[in-house]
Design a protein that fits this description.
Alkaline Phosphatase, subunit A, single chain, ten-stranded mixed β-sheet, Gyrase A, domain 2, four-stranded antiparallel β-sheet, about 525 residues, 19 helices, 2 domains, alpha/beta, about 35% helix, globular
Length: about 525
């Protein structure tokens, strides 16, 4: 074929325009809205047992009509929701994102601090001064906001500050969480819009209080439940008042462990979808939500009580309400919903112990007292231990140097001494961990992944299977001690195929999958890979 000059020029122009169009993200078909649902305490076994009881337009829609990733694990030590969620949102491990747990031991101030604490910020409705300043890498929500400045919108609504802020990242327009002593939504001035108007409205117009005033009874007749209630009431099956105090020594209520908390989150979510116009234009928006299936004073994470069954059934109604709101306002075919859980042990130590399986709760106080006595006998009457938190022992480096004691020798002596205590699996010096490299040992790698310059102690402990650590108030510090900790993961909506995905993936793979779906850059420290089966029919 022979081209004349005008025809040849036209071909070049068309080719150039075609290349230009392919390079523009705006021309790529992508969802208008992404909704992330994090459920505290979620387990796959629970979903399997409850599936037939769910409504076809609620959780069963996500589970049965989406992509079910059956083999997704956390590559980090369980140390609280902050690190679990940060790992998912950043696509990377604490070693890079800086979030190894809800709290950390501050060597300079010699005390345990919240990972969120930020004295430069102001609380909205709360004395807490918190932000995402310790989150060292970008999140999937940050990348969406950076890709579409002044156009995309992201919001995070949660039960707790740690969850809300890690899901919101650095650039969300607003985050909100529940204050279960003051009974209202609160937030932080760190974010552009502070506390979203719709949460604040619920505080002032009485809607929040309306939810709190609802006594929690079974949704259905108590005889229809598979399990007996923990706190049986002969007339109604069970009865809980969300305003009840957790214990006599605290003003904290049981609100966050009742269905009222989930309904409050769902209510704000529905208001944001319609009133803020989420998903209303070509620029994708993101809404991150946290719910719970934990019940008041539960002794087991298994599905063995009528209360936990009811939590799931009522959560199903709230999820149904959100999905219906999305469908009428945006369209489920224009929305990606993804649902995941945190690290939670399949069985609690109490449950294992009742079945004669070795397990227990490790509280470091007694161990450290004996360790301190031992060190004084060997090295002299000094305070050799500076602090302790979350299986990390911090030594008094200044005093050790003053006394001209070889630091590595003391570390090794302590590591060997700690192995004598019940519940301890192993004890490593920080030097050992740094020199081991990536040797394929999953336990070592999880510890290494979870080390940060802020959190790593001089001796690091691990616990035996079935054991978890508790603090002085018997609150768990991380809730899974499994060698490999799995989470349910589902994607639903938009162009997501209905399929079971059995290939092994990590929670660090969720963010890059969403990046591909949204056609935006991956978070800047991302080490995960997209889940290709979610992206292909």
């Amino acid at each position: 074929m022979r081209f004349t000059l005008p025809k040849y020029f036209l071909v070049l122009v068309l080719a150039f325009q075609s290349t230009l169009l392919c390079a523009q993200p705006g021309t790529t078909v992508r969802p208008r809205l992404v909704v992330g649902i994090m459920i505290d305490g979620l387990q796959q076994k629970h979903l399997d047992l409850m599936y037939n009881y769910f409504d076809s337009n609620g959780l069963r829609k996500i589970i049965g009509q989406g992509a079910n990733c059956e083999n997704v694990h956390y590559d980090i030590i369980s140390a609280g929701n902050a690190s679990d969620i940060a790992t998912m949102m950043t696509g990377t491990i604490p070693y890079y994102n800086g979030i190894a747990g809800d709290n950390y031991y501050n060597r300079a101030e010699k005390e345990i601090k919240s990972i969120l604490e930020d004295e430069n910020e102001t609380g909205i409705g709360t004395k807490l001064t918190v932000s995402a300043h310790n989150l060292l890498s970008s999140t999937i929500t940050d990348e969406l906001m950076l890709a579409n400045p002044n156009n995309s919108k992201t919001y995070s609504i949660a039960l707790n500050a740690e969850d809300a802020i890690m899901m919101g990242g650095h650039t969300a327009k607003s985050v909100a969480w529940i204050d279960d002593t003051q009974m209202k939504w609160v937030g932080t001035g760190y974010y552009m819009d502070g506390l979203t108007h719709w949460a604040e409205n619920m505080n002032t117009n009485g809607e929040f209080q309306t939810y709190v005033d609802r006594v929690w009874n079974p949704l259905f007749g108590i005889g229809t439940y598979n399990f007996h209630p923990v706190k049986e009431d002969k007339r109604s099956g069970f009865t809980y008042d969300p305003k009840s105090k957790k214990n006599l020594r605290s003003n904290v209520t049981i609100l966050k462990n009742t269905p009222a908390a989930n309904s409050l989150v769902a209510d704000v979510a529905c208001k944001l979808i319609t009133e803020q116009g989420l998903g209303a234009d070509k620029y994708p928006d993101m809404l991150m939500l946290q719910f719970t299936v934990r019940t008041p004073n539960e002794k087991t994470t298994a599905l063995q009580t009528a209360e936990k069954e009811d939590m799931y059934l009522r959560l199903d109604k709230d999820i149904q309400r959100i999905l219906q709101k999305i469908d009428t306002s945006v369209g489920l075919d224009k929305t990606v919903v993804f649902m995941f859980g945190n690290q939670t042990g399949v069985h609690s130590p109490a449950e294992l112990g009742e079945n004669k399986i070795p397990a227990g709760y490790f509280n470091a106080n007694r161990s450290l007292a004996l360790l301190s006595t031992y060190l004084m006998a060997v090295y002299g009457q000094e305070k050799w231990i500076e602090g302790y938190y979350a299986k990390n022992i911090y030594l008094n480096k200044k005093k050790i140097e003053e006394k001209k004691i070889k630091f590595s020798d003391m570390q090794q002596n302590i590591a060997e001494f700690m192995l004598e205590f019940e519940g301890i699996q192993s004890a490593y010096t920080s030097t050992q961990l740094l020199s081991m490299g990536r040797n394929g040992n999953s336990v070592i790698e999880r510890i290494q992944n979870s080390t940060t310059h802020k959190s790593t102690g001089d001796i690091i402990l691990t616990l035996l299977p079935g054991w978890i650590e508790v603090d002085d108030k018997n609150n768990p510090i991380g809730e899974s001690n499994a060698i490999v900790s799995y989470t349910p993961l589902y994607f639903y909506g938009w162009q997501i195929p209905t399929k079971k995905i059995v290939s092994s993936y990590s929670t660090t793979d969720i963010a890059p999958t969403l990046s591909r779906i949204l056609n935006i850059p991956m978070p800047n420290a991302c080490i995960g890979k997209p889940i290709e089966e979610v992206l292909s029919k």
